[in-house]
Amino acid sequence: MAKIRISGREVLEDIRSGMDDAGLMKKYGVSSKGIIKLMGRLVSAGLLTPAELAQRRSLANTLYFPIFKCPACLEIHHSRFDVCPTCGAIMEQLNKMTAQHEDD
């Protein structure tokens, strides 16, 4: 099976014009997994910001895009992390500190 070539710039135009996931899936002939992969690649390439992805979440009528926010720097990421990719905070340590403060 041949790989589908999709223009990132065209997808960005469609996203920024307000096209929802169902519209993107239909236009580009991709599955829900394909949309998630495409969004990840756009964010990784710096073409789509995590903030744009988070704002777009309200348009995601057909899919759930997970958004994770670092409690230390408040930066938004599109995948779960043990160490924040932005500030380096270690989630396990933050969780322990939070639990200690709740016990006090």
Low-confidence stretches: 58-62
User: How many distinct beta strands?
Assistant: 2
Protein structure class: mainly alpha
Mean pLDDT: 80
Which labels suit this protein?
2 domains; 5 helices; 104 residues
Describe the structure.
The structure is a single chain. The protein is mainly α and 104 residues long. The chain has helices at residues 8-16, 21-28, 32-44, 50-56, 91-103, and strands at residues 68-69, 76-77. It has two domains: 1-64; 66-104, no CATH class. It has a two-stranded antiparallel sheet. Strand 1 and strand 2 form a beta hairpin. Mean pLDDT is 80; it is low at 58-62.
SSE blueprint:
Blueprint: H1 8-16, H2 21-28, H3 32-44, H4 50-56, E1 68-69, E2 76-77, H5 91-103
Antiparallel strand pairs: 1-2
Short description:
This protein has 2 domains: 1-64; 66-104, no CATH class. Helices cover 48% and strands 4% of the residues.
